[in-house]
């Protein structure tokens, strides 16, 4: 008996363009976007879309990207049904546990689940079990390298747009600079909504305690501190959590196994997840079972809204003002501090013809 809906083709679009500002944190910065749109196609012509990003290393040519994809990704996709890829559990052993040469992993989960939901005729968020239609969004500046002027302008705009909270990057060698930024944030936003900080592992546990107490004395209540210390310092994370100065949000840099160990260690108040749909749903189940809140960090073009709506322990989605909207026909809309799931089959995004033709180059100003 023949099975319909099998994957029979793919299309890759290499895109490179300047960002509209320098983004980064205490460890890294970037001023250019390097993206591959990954489309997988079934035997009825339906398309599943994902995006692969190279944050800091230039992508090779389109020909080389396709060569690598055919070798590393395509053998596991060709002739398979997207449902089997989305729901299957693999036995990971030895040499099959490795990163691909190019960062296709997350984009493949996006594309497979998008195609799976389209075949089912359901919005992805509904297929994942969501019963709500919207989730609050906080504004995240990726702002470490911005001037004070640009910092204030960005978060002042976020205030006008009604975001439900604000997160800034900290971890500067001079702690007074971090305090200065918090003061500027309060001036720009009014200080009446939750404030989060993200150190990107810049501190030790004792430095984190010093920083949080300094901010507290200056009148700043920190809703959560994100990745203050190295990802696998579970003892340090437990210490910070026990003090109760701020909620501890961690897990961004850990894989699925590492996130499970973090939960088991009771080393975070909030588990930070991103865009790998299968992994997010699996670890979300574990976090829910352990009564640990889940937060949805940056996902490409806010695709993570689908998982955020489906996981009952998620109260926030991160939005970071990256100039990617022109890559798709219709980006997700944020209004009144909320982002909504889209009532169309799939995850809700389709690559625009203009982006495909231009390689993602931004349209010229009039």
Q: How does this structure look, described?
A:
By secondary structure, the protein is an alpha/beta fold. Helices cover 35% and strands 22% of the residues. The chain is built from 13 helices and 13 strands. The protein has helices at 62-72, 74-77, 82-87, 105-120, 124-127, 148-161, 175-189, 205-217, 234-243, 256-264, 277-289, 305-310, 353-358, and strands at 7-24, 29-42, 47-53, 134-140, 166-169, 195-198, 222-226, 247-250, 270-273, 293-296, 314-319, 334-335, 338-340. The strands form two sheets. An eight-stranded parallel β-barrel has the order 4-5-6-7-8-9-10-11, surrounded by five helices. β5, α7 (175-189) and β6 (195-198) form a beta-alpha-beta unit. The relative contact order is 0.14. The model has no long low-confidence stretch (mean pLDDT 94).
Specify the overall morphology.
Answer: globular
Averaging pLDDT over every residue, what do you get? 94
In the sheet with the most strands, the strands line up as: 4-5-6-7-8-9-10-11
**Count of DSSP H/I helices:** 13
Rg over C-alpha atoms, rounded to the nearest angstrom: 21 Å
Helix-strand sequence: EEEHHHHHEHEHEHEHEHEHEHEEEH
* Structural class by SSE content: alpha/beta
Tell me what portion of residues adopts beta-strand conformation.
15-25%
Distance between the termini: 57 Å
Number of β-strand runs: 13
Which percent bin holds the helix content?
A: 25-40%
- Spans with pLDDT under 50 lasting ≥5 residues? none
Describe the main β-sheet briefly. Answer: 8 strands, parallel, barrel
